[in-house]
Amino acid sequence: MYSILVIQQKMIGDVLLSSILCEGLKKKYPEAIIDYLVYPNTIPVIKNNPFIDTIIPFEKEYKDSKQSFFKFLKKIRNKNYTMVIDAYGKTESNLITLFSGANEKISYYKWYTSIFYTSTIKRKPITLTNAGNALENRLRLIHKEEDIVANIIRPMIFLTNEERISAKKYLQYNELDAKTPLIMISVLGSSKEKSLPPLYMAKIIDFIALITQGNIIFNYIPNQIREAKEIYDLTHKTTQKHIHFNVFGKNLREFIGILSHCTMLIGNEGGAVNMAKALDINTFTIFSPWIRKDVWNMFEDGKHHDSTHLIDYNPEIYKEVTYKKLKNKSIELYKELTPERIIPKLNNYITNLMK
User: Are 56 and 25 in contact (CB under 8 A)?
Assistant: First the structure.
């Protein structure tokens, strides 16, 4: 039996994006068994994916204990994989690939890890379609360059009818009716370096409430509640009447169910944006100054999906410096990405969408 292991030990957005490899491989090798190795906390975004035969969780104990990791490597070895696609490319996945014993071992090119693989692929800075650079580079792991455009795949999240109905009932219970626009705000990124300053975000939310007169819910993780409440308190009193601060999912699948009923998601770039796109929900993304927009602005069309980035207003900043070098300056650079700059484009986006 032809069997393939795909490895992506990373964050939620990366795991969701790399799930296209499973779909692409299933289409390429219909009879193959496709397993996907990920961190346990990311499993909800790939649950019920019909292109994945088995989800293999990379447990915390494998990182903490060499003995546990070695036992895990033996389990991988016993699965007799034919092929391994390593989309992660770090020490752990290098060793997993090596111990798999697979005939084909494919990953991205790094001169110091090439010995672990039978084939390595160089990432390319060019973007061939509006799928984005991050997605196209993943497809290069399983397709020839000339076949990329013809094999573009959109990441998808697969909710059950029961999950959708349960989310709808929860929204109705909280008096959020389907006739009024429901806007989810990604108020915080995964770190301060990926989050629009609180006062700026509050002004953006004030504008959204004014122009849509819709219901607003916040997206944040439990340990960010203090920062989310700070943004809420900075909004105008009339805006706060539109915000349903305590409406949120108790877990990631519940969050996804709620998101599936939203009109649009607006806010900081991150996993929530990728999940919205995978559910075919409209998005407007505010990129951190140190994140490459052309890499992560997947399927941006200026209509259903649009975004803003400091490079749109101050391109000279990016002429002679790498994005990574700007990471430590991101909080300072965010000061230049003012609401006054963002709102005109956001206004056009919302206005056209609501027509």
Answer: no
Q: Please state which CATH number belongs to domain 3-151.
A: 3.40.50.2000
Q: How far apart (Å, rounded) are the C-alpha atoms in residues 211 and 352? A: 12
Q: Angle, to 10 degrees, between the axis of helix 225-234 and the axis of helix 198-212? A: 60
Dig out the tokens for 78 from the structure. Answer: 């016993």
Q: d(Cα 125, Cα 293) in Å, to the nearest integer? A: 12
Global pTM exceeds 0.85 = yes
Alpha-carbon distance 156 to 183, whole Å?
Answer: 20
The 10s digit of each residue's pLDDT in 37-74 is: 999 999 999 999 999 999 999 999 999 999 999 999 99
Could you say which of 3.40.50.150, 3.40.190.10, 3.40.50.2000, 3.90.226.10 is the CATH number of the domain covering 162-354? 3.40.50.2000
DSSP character string of 18-52: HHHHHHHHHHHSTT-EEEEEE-GGGGGGTTT-TT-
State whether the Cα torsion 267-271-274-280 is positive or negative: negative
